[in-house]
Write a structure and sequence with these properties.
86 residues; little secondary structure; elongated
Length: 86
């Protein structure tokens, strides 16, 4: 991570759709600039995360921004404080 490197600053390492240079947390795919729909669903880091906390990884969740869609109550991660549940 080198914020002074223009290549790193324009890349999106975590797949959340926000370039590293302006991403509040460039290593957390669930923390970005708030724009919905710009996520890189082919990014393995983003796909493995569960940003809405419904227990279903983003890569297989039919709506990874809505905790009421794509998961089951039994699989909800109540410790996920970065999700839409928080």
């Amino acid at each position: 991570e080198d914020a002074t490197n223009p290549v790193w600053a324009t890349a999106d390492c975590d797949g959340d759709g926000t370039p590293n240079g302006v991403d509040p947390d460039s290593q957390d795919p669930c923390v970005d600039d708030g724009t919905v729909g710009d996520e890189d669903t082919s990014n393995a880091i983003y796909a493995a995360a569960d940003c809405d906390g419904d227990g279903t990884p983003n890569g297989t969740d039919s709506d990874p921004n809505d905790p009421c869609v794509g998961g089951t109550v039994a699989s909800v991660d109540l410790t996920n404080i970065t999700s839409a549940w928080a």
